[in-house]
Specification:
Elements: H1 2-18, E1 21-23, E2 34-38, H2 45-48, E3 57-62, H3 70-82, E4 86-88, H4 94-108, E5 112-115, E6 127-128, H5 133-141, E7 145-151, H6 153-156, E8 171-174, H7 190-208, E9 212-213, H8 217-244
Parallel strand pairs: 1-8, 2-5, 2-7, 3-4, 3-5, 6-9
Antiparallel strand pairs: 7-8
Length: about 240
């Protein structure tokens, strides 16, 4: 119930303030279980992806949204829980398996499940390699996958920026559902899971017109962070040498 209250209040405000656009919403099934697999450009994706859809979308959200402290943490936890988001531990291993089972319960209810196959937001606006969890969900739940492309979100709200750029109109495109029934029963085959995931990411790439990088986004972020640390250390070293001289 809270989901629809929030959408009824927030939806008109988002439309007036940011003028978001959408295309292909009719490709999302009107009933029954389905997976919406989207690229992930910014925090605003959580709002603009489900906005044009008449059905509730349950997204698997990072657990950090639910574990913050103080007033900010309380507000974040209440909001994401209220709009139907489910916390997911992204540390891998058993945590990934628990996330999968959570997604399967959503699909078993006949609901729409939203998932970001890249596992995290893009560090530079490009599309990164998808994780195979989305393929396992599709096969085990026997649900179609609707490719979804967020457009302009990276420029609209760049990493680390809270205030959006009003000159950018964020958008979302939904592609035709992908049917993987030919692979049912093969959810334990890693080659099949990779093939399905790559097909989903290709569909997202075609919708989004992003450059594709055959690497996991987490690794790219880790490498970028390492470079920033090295530059920072060199800067401090230069400053110290200058001060000493």
């Amino acid at each position: 119930m809270f989901y629809w209250v929030v959408k009824a209040i927030l939806g008109p405000l988002l439309r007036v303030l940011f003028r978001p656009w959408s295309d292909g919403a009719d490709n999302v099934p009107r009933d029954g279980a389905a997976i919406i697999a989207s690229n992930h450009l910014s925090f605003s994706d959580h709002f603009f992806a489900p906005l044009p859809l008449p059905r509730k979308v349950v997204f698997l959200a990072k657990s950090e949204y639910f574990t913050g402290r103080g007033l900010k943490g309380l507000v974040s936890r209440a909001f994401f829980a209220g709009v139907g988001q489910i916390p997911v531990d992204r540390s891998g291993g058993e945590a990934s398996e628990r996330a999968l089972r959570t997604g399967l319960r959503v699909l078993a209810r006949g609901d729409l499940l939203g998932i970001y196959p890249e596992g995290t937001r893009t560090p530079d606006g490009r599309l990164y390699r998808g994780k195979t969890g989305v393929a396992r969900l599709a096969l085990e739940a026997r649900a179609p996958v609707v490719p979804c492309a967020m457009i302009g979100g990276f420029e609209f709200q760049p990493p680390g920026k809270l205030t959006p750029r009003l000159r950018i109109r964020p958008g979302v495109r939904f592609g035709p559902p992908l049917d993987f029934s030919r692979y049912y029963g093969l959810e334990s085959d890693r080659i099949v899971l990779r093939a399905i995931t790559d097909e989903i990411m290709y569909a997202i790439m075609k919708l989004s017109d992003q450059e594709y990088v055959d690497e996991y986004a987490q690794r790219a972020k880790a490498r970028l962070s390492a470079v920033v640390r090295v530059i920072g250390d060199r800067g401090e070293g230069s400053g110290g040498a200058a001060a000493a001289g």
